[in-house]
Amino acid sequence: MNNADYRTTFIVEQNPDAVFAAVSNPRGWWSEDIAGRTAEAGDVWYYFARDLHRCTLEVVESVPGKRVAWRVLDNHFSFTADKTEWIGTTLVFDIERVDGRTKLTFTHVGLVPDYECYEVCHDAWGTYINGSLKNLIVTGKGSPNAGAELTARKPGETSGGFTTSFKVPQTPDEVFAAIVNPHAWWSGDHDGSAARIGDVFTYRYKDIHYSKQQVTELVPGKRVAWTVLEGTLNFVEDKTEWTGTTITFDIARTGAMTEIVFTHVGLKPQVECYDTCSDAWTSLIRGSLKELIETGRTELLELDAPAA
Length: 308
Known about the structure:
Layout: E1 6-12, H1 16-23, E2 34-35, E3 44-49, E4 53-63, E5 67-77, E6 90-98, E7 101-109, H2 118-139, H3 148-152, E8 161-168, H4 172-179, E9 189-192, E10 200-205, E11 209-219, E12 223-233, E13 246-254, E14 257-265, H5 274-295
Antiparallel strand pairs: 1-7, 2-3, 3-4, 4-5, 5-6, 6-7, 8-14, 9-10, 10-11, 11-12, 12-13, 13-14
């Protein structure tokens, strides 16, 4: 980890104007609990998540098809010693055309690893930006309030690894069937099976990532776990950071919905690949896997290559 601002990026087929319109509609992807106008420079608006987080933001830049920036004027967290950590920070969305597609780069200027809220905020932003906002742009439907559970966690509660979750109306058995078919939702080349306890499968994405997973838990409709036997990441100093970690999927029926809680145990903020890998997982789990479960098909994502 370093003291760089939090940043994440993704690329979509939609044009810059469509991306700009989605970004400027935070009620469609961040939270339904927003009051005030959010569309034009000078607009001041308010965000609140139960008794956990509230803030006041001002639109300081709004350039159609190119850039949106919101300055945090006031902030209150219920779960940090310094309740005001976000005050004076800026949320920036840079939009650009790249090879016929549109690239969105989100930067929370001032949100750095030294902040007590960094781990919780990092994971919540990953869920909102790479999951909800991207889905709003691509499918017309976001998941506002999706990160509320992450915000509710106290710092340190995520120390076991990166986690994210979502709910779908499909049954636990349908969810389970999608998860154990990783080549249908996990972008890259796969060899082997993940259908039975003891199965071993390999995963490769270009020359960026190789890993070998073994199925160590398989409870139909309830739980899947893969232990990473080997891992090679070409963009970090310790290329074996994944080796010995465990990837889990917990499935439970909650009312009329099925909840999936994904955890990469061992993928912690202290490891160099955390930012890149957690953002990729968010796109894959809340994007590709969720879409596969809900519709029976999904478009495999092209993941961004980090700098070596």
